[in-house]
Write a structure and sequence with these properties.
- There is one protein chain.
- The protein is mainly alpha-helical.
- It has one domain.
- The protein is built from seven helices and no strands.
- Helix 2 packs antiparallel against helix 3, helix 3 packs antiparallel against helix 4 and helix 3 runs antiparallel to helix 7.
- The protein starts with a helix and ends in a 15-residue tail after the last helix.
- The relative contact order is 0.19.
Length: about 230
């Protein structure tokens, strides 16, 4: 059994425990009541989405430094999982925003930078899909990943740097102690599940890139002979 299968199973177990504690053991949130229980799904998704983009950034640096297919495959795998979590994050946020803010979406700095984050990393994957020369694709997508990552710290610090509807960072200092444990358990569960998906996607991407390298070079296309009239 591949190691990531065990990690994924552990992550699923922790996620179920964390969400179960968040739903049935932890007290209601002081201001939002029962609606606030989405915290145990939304906040871990946000944390882990940023972590996966950090992994992609590290992979991009490794790609430019070493120029190997393993790093390139890591960029692809981490971005794909990051986009999935990013879109899930936006959906969860909309479900939370409607009963608390009265709207599904507001162009709040945190929400805006999060949407930009999704669009820019989707753009990196589109770039990878349109460049068919492996070497050029590897370098171009690594550079694009580094550029896209510039927005990630903006997402994280947006609630501190700008006046925003979004609540401040969730941490042991901002969350009541009975809510900390289920939040941490759910966060580790989401992290392990993300690691599982990244490892699986890395294997698929690496195998495809290796096949590209092993493919024989095609002979040049013969040019038609010109016949004098």
């Amino acid at each position: 059994m591949k190691w990531e299968m065990a990690v994924g199973a552990l992550g699923l177990l922790l996620l179920c425990i964390g969400h179960g504690m968040g739903l049935f053991v932890a007290p209601p949130e002081a201001m939002m009541g029962e609606v606030g229980r989405i915290l145990y799904a939304h906040v871990p998704t946000a944390w882990v989405a940023l972590v996966t983009y950090l992994v992609a950034f590290i992979g991009a640096i490794g790609t430019l430094w070493a120029g190997t297919r393993g790093w390139d495959a890591l960029v692809e795998a981490a971005i794909e999982v990051g986009i999935l979590l990013n879109l899930l994050l936006c959906f969860q946020g909309a479900m939370w925003a409607k009963p608390t803010w009265g709207v599904f979406w507001d162009w709040d700095p945190r929400l805006t930078t999060t949407a930009i984050m999704a669009v820019t990393f989707i753009g990196v994957m589109v770039l990878r899909s349109v460049i068919h020369q492996p070497g050029r694709r590897m370098v171009a997508s690594a550079v694009a990943t580094i550029v896209a990552f510039v927005n990630v710290p903006l997402v994280y610090f947006s609630v501190k740097w700008w006046k925003t509807l979004h609540q401040p960072w969730s941490s042991p200092e901002t969350v009541d102690s009975p809510m900390v444990l289920p939040l941490r358990i759910a966060a580790f569960g989401m992290l392990f599940i993300a690691i599982f998906f990244m490892a699986q996607r890395w294997r698929i991407a690496k195998a495809r890139l290796d096949r590209e390298d092993a493919a024989p070079d095609l002979p040049p296309v013969p040019q038609p002979l010109e016949v004098d009239a």
